Amino acid sequence: MTEKIPSFQTERLILKEIQVSDLPSYKKYFVNYAVISQLSASVPWPYPADGVEWFFNNVILPKQGNDRWVWGIHLKDNPNELIGAVDLWRQGTPEHRGFWLGEEFWGKGYMTEAVEPITEYAFNELGFDELIFSNALGNTKSRRVKEKAGATMIEIRPCLFVDPVLTQAETWQLTKENWLIHKSLLLFK
Ligand SMILES: CC(C)(COP(=O)(O)OP(=O)(O)OC[C@H]1O[C@@H](n2cnc3c(N)ncnc32)[C@H](O)[C@@H]1OP(=O)(O)O)[C@@H](O)C(=O)NCCC(=O)NCCS
Q1: Which of 104, 113, 161, 162 has its CA 20 to 30 A from that of 34?
Q2: Does residue 3 form part of some domain?
Q3: Which residues in the chain land under pLDDT 70?
Q4: All residues at 6 or more sequence positions from 103 whose CB lies less than 8 Å from its CB, including other chains
């Protein structure tokens, strides 16, 4: 099959186009309240039994490589299992990116590692001048991934999430210029 989006390898990860064969592991790790509670209220909870297949068939497949780019995250040590995903899209809502990792894979630096080549691809190949990110106020894990990539928090706005306790979102901006500065500073660390 021809790839609609490029695959990337990092030190510990393989990022590649999601296939039908990835859906069982997608379901296994994504359908977990600890993961879904932090997402926009447009994601249903309780999560429908066919929700992952619906998202794959109606959102990922038709848009993949067009105005949306969705990578499955795999460990090099266990490449057949999807452990998370990074989703990038052209039209800001206001954000351009979403991501999640299976809960048992948190706290190992995998998402920070995964977003690096995707940010590079967005700026260098897809022509983004800036990327807008968003997370629930209080989602410190997601916030840290942004901070460590050189993004700046620009706004707190009202927003609804799956967890009804979360009522505000942080908006972050990463300009291409700031990302290049951030990368060059990392080289000197
Ligand atoms: C958001 C989410 C992907 C972040 O996961 P995470 O595991 O905290 O992020 P990373 O994989 O980048 O891991 C970072 C942590 O691993 C730790 N770590 C351990 N070993 C590491 C290593 N070898 N390299 C780098 N970091 C390492 C770091 O200390 C770091 O924490 P810190 O930044 O506070 O110091 C995850 O919490 C998640 O899926 N949440 C639910 C869905 C969600 O919130 N999505 C985002 C909506 S906006």
Answers
A1: 113
A2: no
A3: 1
A4: 29, 32, 34, 35
